[in-house]
Design brief:
two-stranded antiparallel sheet, D-Maltodextrin-Binding Protein, domain 2, single chain, Arc Repressor Mutant, subunit A, 11 helices, 3 domains, eight-stranded mixed sheet
């Protein structure tokens, strides 16, 4: 039994195909197949069923794969221990991040991170919160950057900042007369929402103190559900409704006419808690600490503590 054979097993499970696994392991398919067959003969078990597409592990194969992953993780942990001892920052960090954070946060720190840690490969995937969670469970990602929930299951979390929401109003909206608005001023029937699966949708409904059914049953003849916050901004400008924006989005709005359509909230200001999320088996702590450090360098000081805020989930 070799570590290479175990790596082949994990790749086959991940891609559900011998050919794709071979391609991603940079070997020929016959070489990979032969090594898997050798391991099966050595263990005296069939690890994969070849009669299904995508290829699936047998019942005993699932147990073998679980142990293989543990062995490979221990190998990786050994390398990381040596890296930390030598003060090295190398390797890859697979980061999953939700769209309503990535659009505004990544441009702020990514350039500095790559300059400071040129030997670290950041692999960034923009997905919904549920996809972050599922990807962490399946070890597709090392770490996630999300708006933390009230219940983060068995995951470990590390708060980065508390981000206030602001209201983006259509021109001539009745709330434009107010200097600041409160949650009590909001009517869910006025709102444009992101598609289901985006946490900002749930947070918007929470700020409005409404539930999903109230919004669905509203009287408007046209209901827009977008997967893109920038689309909602354009629709607000066309007077189709209002929406909530995260505070960091404001730095990218240069048009004074748009800035005039923004209203802040009175205290307690609704906010989301943005943070890192990872499993208790996560071992690249030095890389996540480097990532956190670079993010915190660009975050305004007033966002690092929750003052006069109401966290919404």
């Amino acid at each position: 039994m070799t570590l290479t054979q175990l790596e082949y097993l994990v790749a086959i499970e991940k891609f559900g195909s011998f050919s794709e696994a071979a391609e991603n392991c940079f070997v020929t398919q016959p070489t990979l197949s032969m090594q898997v067959q050798k391991l099966e003969e050595e263990l005296g078990v069939i690890i994969f069923r070849r009669d299904k597409q995508p290829i699936e592990p047998t019942d005993i194969g699932k147990k073998v794969l679980e142990q293989a992953k543990q062995i490979l993780k221990e190998k990786e942990k050994l390398h990381i221990i040596l890296q930390i001892e030598r003060g090295e920052f190398v390797g890859s960090l697979r980061v999953a991040i939700i769209p309503t954070i990535s659009s505004y946060l990544l441009p702020m720190f990514l350039g500095n991170f790559t300059k400071r840690y040129p030997d670290v490969e950041l692999i960034i995937d923009e997905v919904t919160t549920d996809e972050v969670i599922n990807g962490l469970k399946k070890s597709h990602f090392d770490i996630g950057i999300i708006a933390l929930r009230s219940n983060n299951e068995n995951f470990l979390t590390d708060t980065l900042y508390y981000e206030p929401f602001v209201a983006f109003l259509p021109p001539e909206h009745k709330l434009m007369k107010k200097k600041k608005i409160s949650q009590e001023d909001l009517d869910v029937s006025d709102f444009l929402l992101l598609k289901e699966g985006h946490c900002l949708r749930d947070q918007t409904l929470a700020v409005c103190k409404s539930n999903e059914n109230e919004w669905i049953n509203k009287s408007s003849k046209v209901i827009f559900e977008s997967g893109n916050l920038e689309t909602l901004i354009k629709l607000v400008e066309q007077r189709f409704g209002m929406t909530l924006l995260p505070y960091l989005a404001l730095q990218y709005i240069k048009d004074k006419k748009k800035l005039n359509l923004i209203k802040e909230f009175t205290s307690p200001v609704p906010k989301r808690e943005v943070g890192l999320i990872y499993t208790n088996t996560f071992i690249k702590k030095h890389l996540s600490e480097a990532l956190k450090s670079e993010i915190l360098k660009v975050i305004p000081e007033e966002l690092k503590k929750n003052k006069n805020g109401l966290i919404v989930h």
